């Protein structure tokens, strides 16, 4: 829709209040979806989101916005996560690829769209790699790749996700030593990385212990938040790759020495 005729009778302040109310019960939305929902143009919704972000009511992403509220137990659906901060996630994945070299053994985390995007990029590489993952989507993407030795430690599939949790995966990972662990997280603050599900925390801890270097991939909307279960102290992370939405003053709150921060630029 190219004009605002459907809502011309609605004052901008009233429309923005409706947006604030919508974000109280929804974690994230894309500009396109919100424009369609409110019957206004994408350019108008972007201006609204910019204003709300300047007032600290939402966090802006390149493709929309996320609400500012506790992530203690909230988990977005895979479909919503695939449409939220997509360009930021793609930029982060491009930076992550720079760490991959031939003949490395890589652990790829489970339960996050950014790991799926990484797997899709790795699938196009023509170098020998060993990939270990407990994510069924990642495994499917990397199946039938002659240059990739694929290992899936196993476990019980969590309903509604691609994650295999528990045994025998945990015992298998205890005896594995890998070059890199590409990790995701529900929430990150200056003290720790955290998740909403205890079984997922147990798996991630085993992967951290198995890796020579831990690389955390997370878009800026996940920072300065804390989920229900602590996964690891922030000093367990070697490198954090995020996007330009994480302000310098927020990065400065992290301990020094601490993780190396890499800011991915969007193409």
From TrEMBL:
Keywords: Plasmid, Transcription, Transcription regulation. It comes from the Bacteria. SUPFAM superfamilies: NagB/RpiA/CoA transferase-like, Winged helix' DNA-binding domain. The keyword Transcription regulation applies. One of its GO terms (molecular function) is DNA-binding transcription factor activity. Residues 12-67 form the HTH deoR-type domain. InterPro entries: Carb_Metab_HTH_regulators (IPR050313), DeoR-like_C (IPR014036), DeoR_HTH (IPR001034), NagB/RpiA_transferase-like (IPR037171), WH-like_DNA-bd_sf (IPR036388), WH_DNA-bd_sf (IPR036390). The keyword Transcription regulation applies. This is Glucitol operon repressor. It comes from Martelella mediterranea DSM 17316.
């Amino acid at each position: 829709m190219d004009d605002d005729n459907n809502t011309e009778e609605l004052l901008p302040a009233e429309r923005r209040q409706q947006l604030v109310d919508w974000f109280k019960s929804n974690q994230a939305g894309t500009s396109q979806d919100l424009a369609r929902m409110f019957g206004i143009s994408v350019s108008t919704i972007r201006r609204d989101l910019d204003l709300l972000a300047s007032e600290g009511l939402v966090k802006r992403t390149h493709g929309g916005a996320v609400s500012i509220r506790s992530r203690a137990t909230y988990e977005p659906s895979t479909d919503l996560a695939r449409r939220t901060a997509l360009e930021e996630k793609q930029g982060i994945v491009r930076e992550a690829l720079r760490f991959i070299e031939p003949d490395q053994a890589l652990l790829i985390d489970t339960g996050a769209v950014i790991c799926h995007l990484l797997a899709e990029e790795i699938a196009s590489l023509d170098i020998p790699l060993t990939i270990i993952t407990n994510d069924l989507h990642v495994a499917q993407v990397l199946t039938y790749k002659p240059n990739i030795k694929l290992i899936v430690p196993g476990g019980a599939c969590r309903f509604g996700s691609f994650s295999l949790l528990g045994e025998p995966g945990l015992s298998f990972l205890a005896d594995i030593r890998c070059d890199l662990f590409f990790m995701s997280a529900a929430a990150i603050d200056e003290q720790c990385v955290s998740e909403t599900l205890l079984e997922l925390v147990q798996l991630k801890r085993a992967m951290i212990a198995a890796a020579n270097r831990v690389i955390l991939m997370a878009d800026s909307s996940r920072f300065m938040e804390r989920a229900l279960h602590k996964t690891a102290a922030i000093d367990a992370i070697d490198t954090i790759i995020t996007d330009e939405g994480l302000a310098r003053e927020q990065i400065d709150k992290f301990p020094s020495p601490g993780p190396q921060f890499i800011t991915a630029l969007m193409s």
